[in-house]
Amino acid sequence: MALDISRAKTPSLLRRLGALIYDSLLLVGVLMLAVMLVVIPYQLVTGASPHENPTHLLLMQLYLLAIICGFYVFFWTHGGQTLGMRAWRFRVIRDDGEDMRRADALRRFGWATLSLLPAGLGLWWCALDRDGLAWHDRWSRSRLAMLQRH
Asked: What is the distance, to the nearest Å, from the Cα of residue 135 to the centroid of all Cα atoms in its chain?
């Protein structure tokens, strides 16, 4: 179902931050479970911790990045909202107003990761942008849209 983006209001920076904090709390739990599923068997087999081996540490970091990516891609492609976005009443859509597909969500996650790396500058940019868009919104050809109250 396409959304008319010409009428859709963009959420404020504070709403974006609120959803990000909410999602971060949920992600901590998901990541703790993901770590436990790997570290406990690893320690039982090797008697060591993955962080003691640089290669295993890198593999663990990539695994956790994949979990985070999967979290966002799943929610963005199944209803267009993470739980934080639902609480703050906005969703992610493509620039044409259509729902996100897997490739769109992966592109958005990649650009969001790069956009947030320099001290979150890509996100803070939305406070200055004439359309209220962050760097990763523009680069991924997607945007956030407020939902109407019912």
From this structure: 14
Q: How far is Cα 91 from Cα 112, in angstroms, rounded to an integer?
A: 15
- DSSP letters, 98-126, are PPPPHHHHHHHHHHHHHHHTTTTHHHHGG
Q: Contact, 93 vs 142, CB < 8 A?
A: yes
How crowded is residue 76: how many other Cβ atoms within 10 Å of its Cβ? 25
Q: Which amino acid is at 22?
A: Y
Rounded CA separation 24/144 (Å): 18
Would you state the structure tokens that stand for residue 136, as one six-digit string? 């990763």
pLDDT tens string 56-97: 899 999 999 999 999 999 999 999 999 999 999 999 999 999
How far is Cα 106 from Cα 60, in angstroms, rounded to an integer? Answer: 20
Per-residue tokens: 145: 């849209």
- Answer whether 122's CB lies under 8 Å from 114's CB: yes
Share of the chain above pLDDT 90, in %: 85
